[in-house]
Each structure stands twice: as structure tokens, then as C-alpha cells.
Amino acid sequence: MSAAINFSESIDPLEIQPLRRREEPPEEFPLDALGGKLGAAVKEVQAAVKAPLALVAQSFLAGAAVAVQGVANIELHGKATPLSAFFLSIAESGERKSAVDGIAKAPHLLWQREAFNQYETDQKAYKNEEAIYTKEKQAVLGGGGKAKQLEELQEPTAPRKPLLFCEDPTFEGIYRLLAEGMPSIGLFSDEGGRMLGGHAMTPENRLKTVASLSKLWDGAAIDRVRSGDGCSILYDRRCSVHLMAQPMAADTFLNDGVSADQGVLGRFLIAKPESTKGTRLYANIDLGKSASLAAYNATITRLLMGLRFDHQTGELSLTTLKISPEAFNLWTGYHDHVEVQQTLDGAYRPISSLASKAAEHAARLAGILQIFDDPAAVAVDADHIKSGIKLMDFYLSEALRLKATASVGREVVEAEKLLKWFKEENLKQIYATKVYQYAPNGLRTKAQAMPILRLLENHGYLLPIDNEVIDGKPRRQAWKITAYSPE
Predict the structure, then answer these.
(1) Measured between alpha carbons, how far is 189 from 195 in angstroms, rounded to an integer?
(2) For the chain, what is the largest distance between any 2 Cα atoms, rounded to a whole number of angstroms?
(3) Percent of the chain that is helix, strand, coil (3-state, to 5)
(4) Do 449 and 436 contact (CB within 8 A), yes or no?
(5) What are the tens digits of pLDDT across the range 157-199?
(6) Contacts of 313 (CB under 8 A, 6+ apart)
């Protein structure tokens, strides 16, 4: 939140208590774990843009995942496991999220633009072929032709729209893109709050959205049943996610019971870096001349050009990475190390949803880095498993840090929303019925609003006033707003 604006001299600002405990500073992101190629690009972009390192790293890891997931799986527990990855980056407005995301996605979008040029050509050819097919089919049917003659006709296959990124985060939007477009996509948003607080996460849609995200991470078949067009099912599709959200929007997601119950939170790798505002002195770096960024772009392009799939069914044709014997020994040791720390008094018990998937996350990250470093690789080596483990240790540490302050319950999240509304409306006083009528959703009834107002009063943000005339009428339950946030 922004710095406090105090209106009452009767309240000592020192008496205003934060609604949540102060966060401990995050650990430094392990840049060296990204390897030479990806790490060099992240380092140079961070030096130029001056955004938080973890934010830059998340964007480039997600960019690599979108390209890698469409060409390979990794073998875990005797089965092929996707190399998709879900990331959530939490940062205030002004941390240059859009700039970083744009650089990480640039080679994907360039590939997409060129692919669309070919799509337009293919679409014209398809329409001509479809017209010929329809005419031949009508001729067979009109001449009393048999089923065998119909089977001999070659029905043309419509080209798939080469859209790599989903702009509609609802289940229906994701499903349609995977059904009609590319079978490997990214759900990226530098305004992740639009998804986390938007239509996809309304009470009636939340369960469906969260369940579909979990299925996509798992690589499971996704199905849709609708009264109008029946049921359909999609196999061998891949989706990676990178949401960049401001703290309040992220807190709503992190404290959502449905997300926790469905296990989707354990599928996200979350980072909330410290702000770099105030330290971003101008750096005369021309990224257009960056050899490391050029190498990143070239690798993304090579991987995207290596996508193989059935153009009729959309099912991906994926290779499967093995794990070398040395790497497997390291990985199983890490698996057991994390597992034993999930006992009742274990260090990872508070974040068991993530910890239970930590070994798989580490393997996926290792696989992404392995393929990115060597697109022709057939196995994950020990060095890349070590990198995956090092990255996962960072994410576990970050999860523990955020758990200590983010598990604040609905009341604190709603209280912060109410303080934000006070500030946006430039209010100096407030009364209960005004909150019921005009406050953000979730605070429009007495049962919802009064506990939040009492919480703010107990923490010193509101000072009770009796029978004050506000908005032209005396108000029985009213408060003076002493601050919008703690000093």
C-alpha cells in the first residue's frame, strides 16, 4: 500500500498497527541455476531494465517453458510427465512487469506473426479444397454412391491458428484455443489481477477454472460437456502459465479456499521480490545488440519450429527425456529430503501442497533447462538436476516466507480492500450504511462489513464518532478515518 495519510491528531500514528506482520526479505534469486544461456539473457535484461531479478527470471523461465513443453516430456515414475510450468510473480505497479514480459515473449510473437502469414495462405488453399470436396461429395450422394466411395474422398483439414498465448483466461477460452489453435500455449498476463479477480474466478466459475488449470499442469486430457454442442475431449495438450499480479490480487488467490482444496496453489512457483524503485539509475545498454538475448531468441525460435502435432486431432508428438543414473540418484535424494520435512513438526509442513510436488517441480525445471541448453538432448544430466533442485529450494523458501504473512484470512484481505476504497474515494469519514451500499463486493451487508470495520477500528485506522452529520444526515455508526495505511 502507499504511505499513510493521517487525518486525526487525536490518534498517535504509532498506535496504528499493521494488519499483517511485516514480510522478511526474500532470498536472492539463484541466477547461476539458470545455466549459461538462459542465465546470461536474464542477467543482461535485468541490468538494462532494472526490474527485480526474480521477476525477470520468472518471465524468461516461463518463456522457455512455453517453447520446451511442446517438444518434450520428462520420464518420472515410469510415465511421461509434461515440462509445463506455472509461475506467479507478485509485484506492485511500476516494477516494469510489462517491459520484462514483452522482452521474454518477443521471439514467440515474432514466430507467431510469421506463422500467421503462412496460415493465411493455408486458409485460402483449405477453402478451395473444401469447396471441391463438398462438390464431389454432393455428386457421390446425388448419384446414389455408396459409403466406400465417400470414404475414398479426402476431406481437407483446416489449418490451425498459430496463437501461442491465450487472452481469454476462462476455461472455455483456453479449451477453444487448444481445440482449434496450437496444442501448446501460454497463459501469460502482466495484469494477472484481471484473471485472479475477474470472470474466470467468480464464484460460479472458480472451481471450473482451477480444476482445468490443475489438469493442464498434469498433462491430463481435458473435456467439455455443453448442451448445445455435446461433449468433446482433448489429448496431449500443453499449457504454461505466468501471471504477474499486484499483492492485493495475489492475496485473494493465495487465500482462496477453492484454489487450496483443488491443489492448484502447489502447482504454482511464486516469487515476490523486493522493489527496485529508487535504485534504477539509467543504464546505457542496447538490448538489440545483446548476444545473450539473441541466443535466447534463436533457441525459442528453433524450439517452436520443432513443434510436431497431428493437424487434424491437434495431438502433440513429443519426445521423452530420460534422467541419467547420476541425476536420478540426486533427484531421489532430494525427493526424500523434502518428504521427511513434511511431518507434523517438519519445516515444510506449512507448505505441504507445494512441498509434495517439489521433486516433480525440480525435475520439470531441470528438463526445461536441459532442452533449452541442448534441444537435441535425450536425457537430463546431473548438472541440470542440480539446477532444478537449487531453483526449487528458492521457491520453497519463498513459499515459507510468504506463508508467514500471506495466510492472513479473508478479514485482513477485505480490510485492505476497504482501506484502498477509502483512499480512492478520498473519504475522511465513513458510516456503516455507506459501506453496505457502495463498498467493494463482499462488504455489502452488515454481517460482512461490521467485522471488517471493527478490525480496522481495533488497529487504529478508524476512530468512532457519535451522531456525526455526514452526507447531510446524523449517523449512528460512524468513524473518522485516521489513516489509509500504517506509517
Answers:
(1) 8
(2) 95
(3) 55, 15, 35
(4) yes
(5) 899 999 999 866 678 888 889 999 999 999 998 776 666 656 6
(6) 235
